[in-house]
Backbone:
């Protein structure tokens, strides 16, 4: 789970309020919670059914995720990112130290056409408004580093880097790679 490790490694504050976009099986959120600086974690998932799996502790590897007092599960990442209210309906306008996103396959291969606007300078600029100064945005992508997307990040953030992550793939018997973009 290199997305939370690489992203949170760039966070400089002692106590972190974090957003994870995409719940899935819960591994990204669980890895983020392993960082002792994380004091709150809002996990935003599109599917109510997936949230229900976690609320009912149906996934053995992450059964305790929803019961962690630091965690809140929400729905609607892209709408929240585009809104003035942001990611915390209980505290509109709240800012975060890090946003870790693992929803779409890549910035170019999105799960729904409505997500594409997020990966533009305007969309990412709106996201910056939900971060504390110096906050971190980290993004998982299934593709190799994309120079065009790196250029978009450079328009919006002071610093950004693309990390190629190699990992064993039990389905192929070999190795696979993905990319984690980290921007501040």
Residues:
């Amino acid at each position: 789970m290199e997305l939370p490790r690489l992203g949170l490694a760039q966070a400089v504050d002692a106590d972190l309020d974090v957003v994870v976009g995409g719940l899935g099986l819960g591994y990204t959120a669980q890895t983020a919670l392993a960082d002792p600086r994380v004091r709150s974690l809002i996990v935003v998932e599109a599917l109510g059914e997936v949230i229900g799996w976690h609320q009912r502790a149906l996934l053995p590897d992450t059964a305790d995720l929803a019961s962690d007092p630091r965690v809140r599960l929400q729905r609607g990442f892209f709408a929240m990112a585009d809104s003035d209210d942001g990611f915390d309906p209980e505290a509109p306008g709240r800012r975060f130290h890090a946003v870790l996103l693992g929803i779409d396959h890549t910035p170019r291969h999105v799960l729904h056409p409505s997500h594409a606007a997020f990966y533009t300078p305007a969309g990412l600029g709106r996201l910056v408004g939900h971060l504390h100064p110096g906050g971190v945005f980290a993004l998982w992508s299934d593709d190799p580093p994309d120079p065009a997307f790196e250029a978009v990040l450079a328009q919006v953030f002071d610093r950004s880097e693309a990390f190629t992550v190699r990992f064993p793939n039990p389905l192929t018997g070999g190795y696979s790679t993905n990319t984690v973009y980290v921007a501040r």
Notes: The first helix runs from residue 2 to 9. The radius of gyration is 16 Å. Residues 2-183 form a domain with the Rossmann fold fold (CATH 3.40.50.150).
